Amino acid sequence: MVFVVGGLSTFAVGRLFGLAELFIMGAALITCVIVAVLLVSIQRPNIEIGRHVQPAEPEAGQTLHIGLSLHTNSRVPACDVYEFVEDGGKVHIALAPLPSGQVARANYQIATHHRGNLILGPSIVELSDPLGLSRRSKPLGQTTEVTVFPQSVTIDLPHPVTSNGDLVDFIRRAIRHQPTSSEFKSIREYSTGDDPRRINWKVSAKREDLVVNEYENELELDLQVVLDTQSQSYSPEGFERAVSVAASFARSVSRQDDDNFMKVGFTCGSRHFDITTVAQSEEVLKHLAEVDTSTHKVFSSTQREPAHLKVDIIISGKKDSQRIESIWTHNGSARIVAVIFCEDSTSPVNLPPHWFVLSCQHLEQFAENWRSLSSQSAEPFV
């Protein structure tokens, strides 16, 4: 605009007063603008953009490393590429002139501040003439949606075969004292807590130590992780901690050994998931990436096998015993219960004395407390 206004003004003054120098200067300024517009208009770069994101399954708080590949399908002059990112920001990439068929690469990083879907792009290429008088923008490619999972900590499931800890010992004792009429499998040495009804007295009489019978179809464990999503139970920070605790359990499912894989159920408000394979744990993580508190969602109830030993891990906010007992009853009244509170509250908790109760003011505290209940054993329990 400066060149156009200045050129027209100079051209008019030169023409009015008959000054050839001003006339030529004004004409030159206007000509520069016309040439600049023509140069930008005839340049039509054809660029395909691709994005590679690391890590592939990012968690909130991690830094994303994005690799851009720009493949040229025509000659590309020197130009600027802008990649739009979250919160209205953009990343600038200065692209040198490239012939057709070349690939230019660039990298940038962005921090993830919260869980949920993160949109990368769209990108635009901006062309300009050498004098910077004219610019033109062109969109490139599509956007890329990245799921940012909740933050998590490394914990172990209370597996009666591969874990140790107070909760695991409680589960083992409950299993050992369950009567069974299953098909005989083998014998093993007696361990503290074994049901005396399983002692094989005939074989024990021929040995120095007691031995017990094992059966082909031992009692199965029905483990359910329940996330309370009622808004009145949490502050915003407390709910994020609760979601992170639930995500930690979902991550622990995916780290299980195939030989000792334990099926786990997840209930998050009105949604229920049955994880029977490692791949299915990602569905839970994706749901947790977008879950929010609600005041109207109906709590999901699940059908549970009466013959299985039911174990519940309930994640909630305020220490409201009435709310916790409602969840426990609605979920099928498990025999063994661990409750994790993610809010700092001084209200009394009148829960059954044999329940396990943990506090989670921050994730590291939860991880430390949980390891006393369940941690990976050096040797599988036999």
- Side by side, the strands of the main sheet go 15-14-13-16-17-18
Number of strand segments = 19
Our count of domains comes out at 3
> Looking at the structure, what is the overall shape?
elongated
Order of helices and strands: HHEEEEEEEEEEHEHEEHEEHEHEEHE
The top-level CATH class of the largest domain is: Alpha Beta
Radius of gyration based on Cα positions: 33 Å
What is the CA-CA span between the terminal residues?
84 Å
CATH topology of the largest domain: Rossmann fold
Q: Mind telling me which CATH architecture of the largest domain this is?
A: 3-Layer(aba) Sandwich
Q: Mean pLDDT, rounded to whole units?
A: 84
Number of helix segments? Answer: 8
What fraction of the residues are assigned to beta strands by DSSP? 25-35%
Main beta-sheet annotation:
6 strands, mixed
> Approximately how much helix is present in the residues?
25-40%
Q: Could you name the ranges where pLDDT drops below 50 across 5 or more consecutive residues?
A: none
* SSE class: alpha+beta
